[in-house]
Specification:
Helices cover about 25% and strands about 40% of the residues. It is built from one helix and eleven strands; from the N terminus they run H-E-E-E-E-E-E-E-E-E-E-E. The termini are far apart.
Length: about 170
């Protein structure tokens, strides 16, 4: 009879251990989902609204910030802009450098040149890009484009990105 009690006690301990592992696995999975969602919320939300060529090597692209988070203009120099286009019979894929190959030309709300709050001073690189505001970016391509078909990708330092294929 004594061995039956030991076997029963071991079975109960086994059930408790298995249940504990299940709870721990569920907690870890919930934590991973929470962290993943938190990382998504930290990213800026941008949308490329339009773009055009003015001459064979100069483009203008309008990018609007969405969501509830402003973006500091002094971090713009850490932003990556990539373009892909055709030049000289070749496909050119290049990263444009802030200040040398691209810059902010103006801030828009709708089709009007103005800002909501936190004014941007481009010379001092101060102010905030607020949700609802559109930045008009001027891009200088390293070589002239042969066609009006091109691809634009902008990646902010916080991981937010927006892209568009123009044709």
């Amino acid at each position: 009879m004594g061995s039956f009690g030991s076997v029963f006690a071991m079975a109960i301990v086994g059930v408790v251990i298995m249940t504990s592992f299940g709870v721990i696995a569920k907690v870890l999975t919930s934590y991973e989902v929470f962290i993943s969602e938190a990382k998504q919320e930290l990213r800026s939300n941008i949308y490329v609204t339009s773009g055009r060529f003015e001459g064979p090597s100069t483009c203008f692209v309008n990018v609007t910030l969405y969501g509830n988070k402003s973006f500091s203009i002094n971090k713009m120099r850490l932003t990556d802009i990539f373009v892909v286009y055709k030049s000289g019979g070749n496909t050119i894929s290049t990263r444009l450098e802030y200040g040398l190959s691209w810059s902010i030309s103006r801030v828009l709300i709708g089709s009007y040149e103005r800002e909501l709050i936190n004014p941007i001073n481009l010379t001092k690189e101060t102010g905030l890009w607020d949700p609802g505001e559109t930045l008009e970016l001027q891009l200088s391509l390293p070589s002239p484009s042969e066609t009006s078909e091109w691809y634009f990708l902008m990646v902010l330092p916080d991981g937010g990105s927006g892209s568009w294929t123009f044709s």
